[in-house]
Amino acid sequence: MKIAIISQPEYFRAFYENDLDVLGEVREFQFKFTMTEGDFIELEEFNADFNFFFRGEFFPEAVLKRLQGYKIALSSEPFPNYVDGRLNYSSDSLSRFQEFKEIATKSYDYVFHYDKSSLPFLSENGLHLSGEFVFPVALGVYKKVDLEKKWDVFFIGRSTEYRERFLGLLKHYKNVLHIAHGVYGHDLVTYINQSKLVLNLHAENEISWEPRVQMLLASGSMLLSHKITKNDYLIPGVDYIEVDNNDPLDLYSKVEYFLSHDAERSAIAVTGLEKVRKNFDSLQKFKALIDGIQHNEFNKVYFDLERISDSKKITKRKENWCPRYLRNLFIFMKLRRRTR
Question: For residue 300, what is the DSSP state?
Answer without folding.
Answer: P
